[in-house]
Structure formats: C-alpha cells, structure tokens
Amino acid sequence: MRNLHRLWSFSLCLFCLLTSLCLLLFSPSLQPQQQTAITPEQQYKPPLLISGQEERRLKKKLTDTKRIRVIVRLKQTSTDNNAKLKTSLDAQQQTFARSLKSANSRYLAKSKVLPLVVMEVDASGFKELLAHPQLVSVEEDRLLSPLLSSSIPLIGADSLHASGITGNNQTLAILDTGVDADHDFLSGKIVAEACFSSTYAPHSATSVCPFADIYTPGSAAPCSLGSCDHGTHVAGIAAGNSSGNGAAGDGVAKDADLIAVQVFSHFADADMCGSASTTPCILAYTSDIIAGLEYVYSQRNNFTIAAANLSLGGGSYNRMFTCDAVNSATKSIIDLLRAAGIATVISAGNDGNNTALNSPGCISSAVSTGSSTDSNNLSGFSNAASWLPLIAPGSGIISSVPGGYQNKSGTSMAAPHVAGAFALLAQAQPTSSMEQRLAALTLTGVDITLPGSGFIKPGIKLTDAVNALQASNLPPVDLILDDDYHGAPLSGTFSGENATLAYGGSQRYSTDSASSYRFTPQIPVSGVYRLSAWWQAKSGANQASLHINHALGQSTITLDQSSAGGNWHTLGNYSFTAGNDHNIDFTASLSQVVVDAMRLELINPPPLAISSQLLPDAIAGEDYRQNLTASGGLPPYSWSALEPLPAGLSLNQQGLLSGLPEISGSFSFQIQVSDQLSSTSKTFALVVSQANQSREIIIDNNDSNTTSSGTWQVSGGQNPWDTNSLYSNSNSSFSWLADIDTDGAYQVYAWWTYYSTRSTNVPYTISHDGGSTSVEVNQRNQALASQWVLLGTFEFSADNSYSITVDGSNGQASADAVKLVTSAAPQTLTIPPFTLPTGQVGSDYNAAFSASGGLAPYSWSSTSALPSGLTLQSSGILTGLPLESGSWPLTIQVMDQQGDSSQADFILEITPSPVLEITTNQLADALTGQEYTALLSGSGGVAPYSWSHSGDLPPDLLLSDSGQISGVPLFAGIWNFEVTITDNIGQQSQVSLSLAVNEARAGTEIVIDNGDSNTSFTGNWLNSSGAPPWGSSSLYNSSGASYRWSPDITQANRYLVYAWWTYYSTRSATVPYSISHDNGLTVITTAQNNSALAGQWYLLGEFDFSPGGDNYIQVSSENGQACADAVKLVPVNNTELAITSLVFPDGSPGQDYQASLTAGGGEPPYLWSITGVLPNGLTFDDSGFISGIPQLGGTFNFTLTVSDQLASQASAALSITIAEPAPLSIDNQSLADASVNESYQVQLTASGGYPPYSWGITGTLPDGLTLNSSGQISGIPSQAGSWGFDIFVSDQQTGTDQIPSGITVLELAPAEIIVDNLDSNTGRTGSWTTSSGPQPWQGNSLYNNNAGVFSWHPQIASTGTYQVYAWWTYHSNRSDKVPYTVSYQGGSTTLEVNQHNNLLGGQWNLLGEFPFNAGSQYTIEVSSSNGQASADAVRLVKVNN
Hints:
11 domains
C-alpha cells in the first residue's frame, strides 16, 4: 500500500486579505488539547503505546465518533545479509493485521520504510491495540492544512548566485498541494513525482491523484481547488528560475531540481473543513505526509537531496517534549531523513502565538521556520517559540502560481526560503553534514527580537552562513541540551513546571541545597565553545551555582536566575575535547537553582599566529626593545625562545625582546607563542651591527626639526615612542627633517600608535639622493603599531637635510617618530656553516639560514631542488610541510643590497612519517530506535584524514568523511564491514570492525524494601509486629507522616506497581499511596485493615516511568495508621515466553516464500524447533526463518516450539497454506511469421500448474526450425510456405495442455529498392529536360530551372526502417539548395542538398533514415523551387539488411 494515515487539522484554508496576504488558518476543532500541568520527563524515548492523557482523549472521541483512524508502530528486528534471521516488513505488517480479533478493526494502509500500519478502529478495537504485544506506540492519524523580488537579496541569495552558488546538482522535495511542472518559472526542474492522497468515506475524503500509477510524471500536478496553487508558489520560492521567462527575480536555489509530492486530499464535509463557507477544502492525513517523507527517503540514493519542505501544519503545542511524544511516527521519519543528511523544513504556523508552534513543525528534530518582514521584524501572523531555530522572509512574497504569479504571506512562504538555503549550503560545501549546515544558519543569522516573549532568534543570512562553512578550519557546531532530553539529577529533589518562557516550554527547579543536576554534552569537534544557559526567571534563584569541567580544568560560575530569563545568557568561552566526558553541573548550594537548557557554540577562533613580521636591526652595546605580537587562538599569550638569543638579549612571557646585544652579526632563532589551547613558532632573523660602524638618527614629533600643515591632535593610542603621538583626520601632513652628517645608505623606520579608526593605507614620502619615494603602511593593523617599522633603505649625502612626511590624504593617520640607521662599509658577505634540523614527512618544518657581512637586508634562494612541500622564503626561512622522505643536498645562495652574493652547501634529511594506522579497534553497541554516534580515530601518516568503508553498515547509519558513524538504527543484528583511512598524501590503512545493534528492551523488575538507601520519610516510623513482612520487618505510623520509595529507573517503560504491607487490627481502611510518574501524580487508596490483602503484592496500577524523572511511591498515615514495607515495579512487557507469529502469509507454488517467526517475553535470544510437515520446498532453521520455493499446493500443519535463554519453552500448532495453482495453460495463441533465410526465434510460455515446464509438438516445423525442451522455437527457415502443428506442454505433476498452431515462412523481401527517372513509377510537373551532366545512374538524368517537381514512388514489400539515397548529375548551373521531400510512415521531411558541388554529383548521397510499411504508398520528390535541380534516381536500403 502506498500511504499511511493520521489526521491533523491540515485544512488548506488560506484566508486572503484585501492586501493579498494569505495566512494559513487551522481548524480549531481538530487541535490537540493544551497541556495544563506537566512533570518534565527525563530523556526522550518514543512513549510506550500512548500517554494516559492522549488515551483518555481518544476514548472520549470514540464516544462521539464511534470510529477513529490511528497509526500503530510495530516492534521489528532485522539483520544483515550474512545473518540467518531476516524479517520482512511487508509480511510483519500483514501478519499483525491478521492477528486482530475485533470485528470492526479495519486495515487501511502500511508504510514502506518504518514499521507502521494505519487502522480504523472502534472502542473494542482500540482496547485490543493497547494490549497488543507487538506494538510500540499508538497515535491518532490527524489532519493538517497547508499553511520574491525583495526577499532574495534580503537573505543574501543574490550574492551567492553571482558567485556561482545557485543550488546546482542539488534537489529539494516539496510536499504540498502539487506543483505545476509546466510553469515557466519551474521549467525542467521536476525530476521525480509522487502522489499520496487518501480516499476515506467516513470523512468524505477523496484522492486527488490523477493517475493509478502514483509515481508517473504528472502525478503531483496541482489539484482543482483554488487553494491548490499553494505548492506551486512554495516551489517557486525554493527553486524558481527567471532565466528567459521575464519573472521579477529568482528563487533561493534557482538551479536546484525538485521532487514534487502531492499529500493532500479533497474534503467535502463541512465538519472536516470547519464551516460551510470553506467547503470543499483540502486537508492532508499525517499518514500521507509520512508516506511522502518515506518516498523522499527512498530517493536519497537517486538524487542529492538537501531538504524536504512541508509548508503545512495544524494543532498548537507550547511544549516541545509533548509534541515529540504525540507525533512519534512523524518524528521517526524526520529522524531517518536527518540521519541521511536531509533537513525537514516545516512552517511554524500562522496563529500569531509567540510561545507555541504548530505540528509537525514543533517536532524537535524538524527545522521549524517562522516568518519575518522586509524590515527584519517578526510577521504579525507568525508563530514562534523558545525552540524555534530559524526565521525567514514570509510577508508579501511574489512567486509562481498556475497561470502566472501572486503575492502571498505566511510561514508557508518562509519555510521554502530555508529549504533553498540548505541546497545552496550543500553546493557550497558538499562534504558538510546536515547539522553543520543548520549550525551555519543558526550561528550567523541577524538577531530578530520577538514581540511579547522577547526571544531572540536568527533571521537567515546566506552569505555569512556560506562563509562559516567554507572559510573555517573547523565545521560549525551548535549543540543545545534541554533538560527534557539530556542530563540527570545527581542528588536532591527537582520539581518540574510548565513555563512559557522556558526553553521547550518547561523547566525544573530545586530549593534543596543538596540538589545537583548534570549535563554531559557529546562534543563532536575539539575546540573553543561559547557556553550559554537558558531559563525562565524564578524568584529566589539569585545565586545558582554552575560547575564546568572543561579541557583546561574546572570553573565555577554564580548565576542570578531570578531575572532576565527567556533567552540565551552567555557564560564564557571554554575548551572542550571530542570524545571526553565534560560535565556541566547545576547546584543549589547557595540558593534555588533552575535547570532548563544549555547551548555550546563552536566559536572557532582563527588559528594562533605570530603577527610580527620583521625585527628591526640592533646595535651592539645599545639598548634594544621590540614587542612581539600574536593573533587568533584563545588569549592570553605566553612567549618563549626555543633557540638561543643573541648574547645580551632576553624574551619575557609578555613578548618583549629586550637587552644590550653584546656582539655584532646576523642571527636567527625560533620564537614560540602559546595560548590556552595550542602553540606555534616562527623563525626570526636579527642583524646586530657593530657600535663603531653605525649611525642612528631619531626624530620625535615633539622635536624642533619637524613641520606640519593642517590640524594634528594628541592621540589616545597606546605606547607612543616618547611622550605622545599625534593624529589627523583631514588632508594634513607632518614632516620630520633629518640632518645628515655622513654619506651612506640609511634604513628609514617609522613609529606610530594604533587606533581602530586609523587608515589601512597611510602614505609616507621619503626624499633622498635619488628623488622621493612614497610608501603606504597599514596603521589599523595592531600588530605593526608601537614598534619600528622599516620603510626602506635610501642613499643620503652629508651636510644635507631630507624630509620624511606622513599625510592624512587616505584617512586618519598617526605621526609619532622616525629613525634613520646607517652602517660603515660592510664586511665580506658569508654564510656561516651549520647543520639543518631533520624533518619528517607530514610535520611542519622551519629552519632559518643566517649570513654576516655585506649590506643587509639579504635575499635568499636555492640553486637545487627542494623536497616536495618545502619552500625557501627570500628572508632565508626554509618552511613548509615535507611530503617525501630522503636525503637532499642543497646549495643555498644569499645576496645583499649591493648585489654581492655568497653560497654554501647543506644536507637536509627528511624521515618518513609515522605509520598510518586506525586506532579504533572496537565499536560500542547500538540500540534500536536510539541515536548512535561513534568517532573513528587514527594516527600517523599526514593529517588531515578522510574515511570510507566497504561492506554494509547497519541500515540508517552513515559514515562521514570525518570519521563519524551516526544515525538512528531501526533493526537489530550484527554488521561486519571494513573502514579505510586515507591521509593527506594518499596513504591508506584498513581495519575490519563489527557493530552490534541490540533490541532496546525494557528494564527488569525493581523491588525496594523499607530501610533501603533509596527511601526517605517524615515523622517517626516504628517497627511493626504485623506479619508477614516482605523482608525482615515492616514499619508503621499513626500521626500523619509519610514514607517514600524512589526507584532507580534505567529504561523508559510502563510498569506494574505493587505494594506489600503487613496486617494489624489498627490499620486504616483508607491508606493512600501516591505514585509520581511521567504523566503526573496518582493517589490510590488501600484497605490495610483487610487481612486478606496483607502479606502479598497488591497491584496499585500501571504507570509510565523514565530515567532520571522525579519518580516515587509514597504511603501516608494522614487517614490513620499505615504500614510501610516494600514496593515492586514490573515492566509490563516482561511477560512469559510466548509465540507471537501465529498467522503465516499464504504462498504460491514456484514463487519465493519467506516468513520469520517471532516471540515475546522470556529472556531472548530465542531458539526454534519444528515438528510436523512444512510445504515441499521450504526449509526451516533454528533462528526462526522459513524460506524456499514451495512445490505443491495445500495446507500443511506443524508445531513450533521456542526456547529462551532460561530454558523456558512455548509451543503453538500452526499451518501454512500454499495456494493450488490455476490449470496449466499455454499463453501463445499465435506465432509470428518467419522469412526465408532470416534468423527466427520465439519463446513459448505457459501459466498455472507446477513449473518448470516441458514442451513438445506433434506435426512438422518448417525446414531449419527446431523446438527445445524449454519451449524455444529457433533457427533459419530455408523455404517459404505454411506449416501447421500442435504444441503441447506438461508441468512437474500431471498437468498438460495442447493447442493447434502454425508458422508461415515468407519470401525474403528485397533489401534494396532503386527507382530511376526512366521507370514507370515516377511523375513530374513542369518541363524536365535531358541533362548533359556526367555520370547519370542509367541512361540519362533530367533537369529543370523553375518550379518543377519530379517524384519517385517506391513499392515497399517489407515493413521496416530504410536509408534513403538520391543520385544526381553535376552542372555548373545547379542550385546549392535543392529541396528533396521524403514522405514516410507517420509524416514527411524536407531537406536541402548542394547539387552545385561537383564532388557530390554522380554518386549515391544519403538523405536520411525513415520508417515505411509494406503495401503503403510513399513519394520522394525533388523540386527546382530554389533554382536549377537535377532528377536522376533514388535508392532505399533496409537498415536490418
């Protein structure tokens, strides 16, 4: 079956205002009940069958409507192809349906991916479902309704289009009211279509699928109602393309393809549509939507699907956890799509509610989208809530509708903006995951403050999001941990509350000073994270404590949670390491504490780098000071020298290089800077000149030999050269005048201070002997400020003055000081010998060459080849990432400023990289239906690594390129596969791994006796003499005290809760037991004065419990004397061993048959045995798998026995029916004709009976033909004629059939037909004259100069395709555009030939291939309408000859 069904108020009611703003309205009568009081569940698991509140709602609805539609989820297991057990989903669904006993339970549909079945049930059928052992959950099949010119630039999509990011090679799925594939805006975009539209008479619902084949092209065409233009409008926003059609603008992903899926049905019932005025309407069953999403999931290997868009919804939820629980079936398929890398983008709804979202957009794993205006404000109609992830334009959006374009508004219009955004991000970074693309959007959007609630949510900005994906060395990560799904109390007692401003709509709190609650985030990528917390303000929580265990240690923060709630509050930046347990604990040690949600954003600081470029020269014996600077990383920084500094200099931890250098020369040394996370190093060169050889001139802005024009003011910039620095914003100038007393070349330096408003290209002009030179510097670069920066080396003459001028012509400039340094005649340029450090393949390499003498600065080069990956910088630093090992002889050359050079020889040793290996040798087990993540690790080789695998992973788990295995496995079993790691230079290593997926099972029985550690009490409880106690004693109290048992729940489940007490004559007849469970608090009154009830387990009821919840059972003496002894919790599905596969599907002889045996209860795994007779051809193994090809029809009886691990056994007498086949019958009623000397082959076929078949004939076949035993007649007949004979067939039993038949052998039709101009089957109009042209076909050719037509009429004897040729003669007067017209079966074609070309005359020229039927009349014509034409002959050659 093709569709699932679940009703939500999905009525496509688009209420169009006069301004053409169409807002989605939802049928109030179909909305789920709002939650009034809740106890926060601890960790989300799909609820066991159904919550108590939802069960009561559906029972009440059954009272009113008598029948309801529900979606049930079955338990299911499967294994890989190498294992024995293999459950057929289809067979399991049918078996379940057959197992139902209620007469009014009706099987409607089933899903293809998830173990879901849609049923119609009455009250008795509903009760049967709730008790069925094969079910996981039951929920209502609800109904839902469907909920560019300025918006595209608003989100930055136009900028991405201009850069080539257009959604190319990406696909978007649109699940809506159908898409007009013929619209110009969507031309050629639809690559697949499907229709899931239900007919259901009780609701007056009819399918709008136009064809029986729901997957054929056109199956998702828009329906006929006016509101059916909705899907075409949504598709245009997501992927419309204006190229060549005059549209005002493009869609978001203008080059993306589309999968169109129709999910709506036509409703003619006013009760379903909401009113008579809105009838008829279109609504969508939840089951059809699930079927549509399953179809999208099935296409994941055929198309690169970035997102599925659902612009629809119904029903309002102000709590995320409740939404997930009620919509578990929809959440399951959304989770599957998410694990496959496909985002499910859903509109938030149009009720104007600022603390609630519509379903299914409220589901935690969906990408719900609210609507904004062009001014980046929330649209007045848009829903929003604390857990809404994104906002996009949705007001006044112009897009395609059938027949043109319209303006529409609604969150339906906002969602496709986000769906298109996912396509653009997927194209921009194809290796990114769906979570990384979502994080790129949530971390970069423009902040929009929501009215009413004050929530701050991101409006999408695509250029920033793409930059976050592309330009970063780490992927975007945005982790949110909500207390409903993550963490657990460590101690004390927490109370839950519904809170509209809390994240997800609820939070928990504690006033107990001993209370502590722990979050343990699973860190996917090591790095620095911005840590934030969310809470709704609570009086008294003004000193809550938060303890953070991070990579660098532990930190404690005190939070004031008594105010400023309802948004993310940044707590600081912390380093976390992937794979490590980092705990975040909330405690109430100083005041009340609120626990709600945590957020970790990978802020990905730029890599740590040393930003200082060059060191200014030093002079021996003179004071030297230079501040080193760094950028990126996580400050503060710490500096150190990895190699010896020149004598007399030192480097402190703050990065100050200072001292009195003692000797002159050229020095190189490596400096390291470290932040809180990492370290990096850089090699510097420093020239120390001899004191008696140098001359230094420094001029400050306060000295007398300066001049200026314009206004210069004292700057607030830090670290000036002397007392201050100056700045100017106008076109002003400042000059320093240098008086030179010694001829020579001088290095000219400038000193300025940093300020954020400085220009990035401040000009300095230096006058010198050669004229003047202008040099621009970046004074906004903080790394260059407050140090001597070299402007260049220039020649100056003694007894002259020269100016160095800075000006503000390019913006704000700083004027502080300049320095001129010269040296006497240099010594001989030499490279001192030293040993190069050894390098390693794949590891960063740095080495610095040094020189002395000559005139610095120097320029370095190599005259020999360097190892691959290394470069020699002109500054003399050999750096890079070596990619090959070996011993490398190098000849290094240095040149100074005078052109003098020197060279020296070195040997560079590069050792191989460490052996590449995979260090992961074992994977943790997974559980069915639960999120699984495992990160593979490797070592050695050359990072970064990429990962791949061969063999099958468990279905629905994926291995990313970064080595993460993740997803939600649905089937239990063991899968074996091989993973491969590849490093950056192509080296590989493999290892074989196994991954076990275990069935998620309920917990075991829990018994708590009085006095156990997990008990507590108020008042004074005394030992009782009542008998018999559960353990060694029981307790009693008569004065209003209470006794509490707190079970440690490890698995979410439904439990039977029992109490044990002892009898005494003074016990009360109304002793209350309070049970706190997932769905609230229940009080049960017991008669402890009844001796018949004492000394045994007394059932208090059946309740849902989850791990970490505030669960307890409490007895009170408020109504008189009460006994407190023991309590017991028993999982309801921990039943006795029983066979649950009680009905098998029927089979057919000769057809493959498979059936899996299932059991429940006991202690799995199970072993199976059989007594009796299986159908002939079927086999059975002890894992419970029946398979084979049955040979005979009939009903076969046998007995199955199952054994569990506790040696318990259960048996059942069962049967399998193999349908008797239809009578054996030959299918071929006539045989095709044959032709003489042509190959002939025909296959005889039969049906019914028991295959395989044997064949024969009575009579004679044509000469040259034979019949083999498999029924094939073949050969080459040698003569024409007709032969009659009988064909007979027999099966493997006693069936036979015989029919008369025959074969006619025809004479072979001629392979070639030639018609000459002299033949009788020709015709002409106009005057055709014999031509003197050379080489006619036979006899002569003809010609005509003006509007003559000559025709040939070939006689076709054999149907087929022929090549048609023409022959003409050349003459200089012939036209170069002579038209030939060929008529053929189905049409005619005219083509022009060049008869003026002498190379084409006198030969056969091909006109083309055309089909002709035997016995039909056809014509080939030539015309002189374009000038002189020759008519000679035509030839037809059959293609298969």
